[in-house]
Amino acid sequence: MKTRILIVGSGMGGTIVANGLARNLSHELRNGDASLTILGTTNTHLYQPGLLYVPFGRAREIELSRNERSILDRRVNFILDPAKLIDVEHNCVECESGKIHRYDYIIIATGSRLVPEMIPGLKEGAHHFYDLEGARKTREAIDNFEGGRVVININVPHKCPVAPLEITLMLDEHLSERGLRDKSEIIYTYPIGRLHGLEPVAHWALPEFDRRGIQYETFFNTKEVDPVGKTISSEEGDTLSYDLLITIPPHKGAAVVEASGLGPSGWIPTDPKTLLMKGSENVFVVGDTTDIPISKAGSTAHFEADTVIQNITHLVQEGRWARQYDGKVFCFIETGLSSGTYIWFNYETPPKPTPPTQMVHWAKLAYNRMYWLSAGGLL
Q1: What does pTM read for this prediction?
Q2: For the ranges 35-44, 118-127, 286-295, which has the lowest average pLDDT?
Q3: Helices 199-212, 163-177: inter-axial angle, 10-degree rounding
Q4: Sign (positive or negative) of CA dihedral 59, 62, 68, 73
Q5: Which listed site, 118, 185, 187, 241, has its alpha carbon 20 to 30 Å from 278?
Q6: How big is the chain by its Cα radius of gyration, in Å?
Q7: Residue 89 pLDDT > 90, yes or no?
Q8: Residue 272 and residue 277: Cα distance in Å, rounded?
Q9: pLDDT band per the 50, 70, 90 thresholds, residue 294
Q10: SS3 342
Q11: What are the tens digits of pLDDT across the range 147-166?
Q12: To the nearest whole number, what is the mean pLDDT of the chain?
């Protein structure tokens, strides 16, 4: 009997899983013993970490996207038809076209979405860089900025957890290069009592902020923004004025996950080691879609995808489990325009940032170029 494998979502996690399974199951796919289908919402595959560089004019937009079909293995059946309902009880997915896709194994890699509208005035008053349009508008706002107060406002949950630190440190150097740093204040807000959710990263960032004269307000949970009066207020009762507001908007999981009743706010309850949806034996979850309390980052999706690839391969070929996910995450951190550090950690080992170097910055830029090999299953 043919084993039907269905992937919902054609971002980083879904694409890596598709290409890895196509390679490992080439014999089964060729003989008709397995089928491999991926359902996408767009023909364009965007390298989202590259958006960080757009506000500073340090990335060419043409380098950040490719046609999804061009990076998928030819044995993968790519269908541009967004999922409307995922029915895990009956092992099927209904698409917006009305077509029903049945499966034996499903990988849900639907990612996350921006929901700035959850906070009154945030969408109208703030800039962000979490999609291409937002990054372009942020670039324009920074280009037009001639000094004053910049508030960098962080809301949770959000993907790419070190991005708030990166945009802050990069902006600090960018304003210095333009001769505007002495004419500007930078105030960073964070919703808990430190500068980052990961305590070792927060401890590393604090002296870095102090050294650069970057101010910060912790326990700042955003209540509302007044785009006309240019103020941002917190649930704790603090109000800050701004000349430029850059936000990390709150995120939710994909709407289809909520509509299917699979998890609150679009995050699916996921076993942290097997990456199976809790209570399921054939529903795998990858990337931002999980509710695992680790970083929603590209490397997380990649390492999770590797685990899922190996397990589905062994289940199809040998009827057994291969390995478990250990929580591995690796993140480069830009500490300016020409220096960087990195962190890696897993469920057992906490992160430990290293002193920034130019070499790490260049390593991150090199990986940005090599991403397409990674998504294509070649790295």
Answers
A1: 0.96
A2: 286-295
A3: 10
A4: negative
A5: 118
A6: 21
A7: yes
A8: 9
A9: confident
A10: strand
A11: 999 999 999 999 989 999 99
A12: 96
Q: What pLDDT is recorded for position 374?
A: 85
Q: Which segments of 168-264 are extended strands (E)?
A: 184-189, 215-217, 222-226, 231-234, 239-241, 244-248, 251-253
Peptide bond into 272 cis (omega under 30): no
pLDDT of 5 reads 98
Query: Rounded to whole angstroms, how far apart are CA atoms 315 and 319?
Result: 4
The CATH number given to 115-246 is: 3.50.50.60
Distance of CA 71 to the CA centre of its chain: 19
What's the rounded Cα separation, in Å, for the pair 7 and 250?
Answer: 26
Q: Is 311 or 375 the better-scoring residue by pLDDT?
A: 311
SS3 181: helix
Please name the fold of domain 3-111+254-329: FAD/NAD(P)-binding domain (3.50.50)
Task: Please report, as a single letter, which amino acid is at residue 276.
Answer: L
Tell which residue, 97, 139, 101, has the closest CA to residue 8: 101
Domains 3-111+254-329 and 115-246 share a fold: yes
Question: What are the sequence ranges of the domains in the chain?
Answer: 3-111+254-329, 115-246
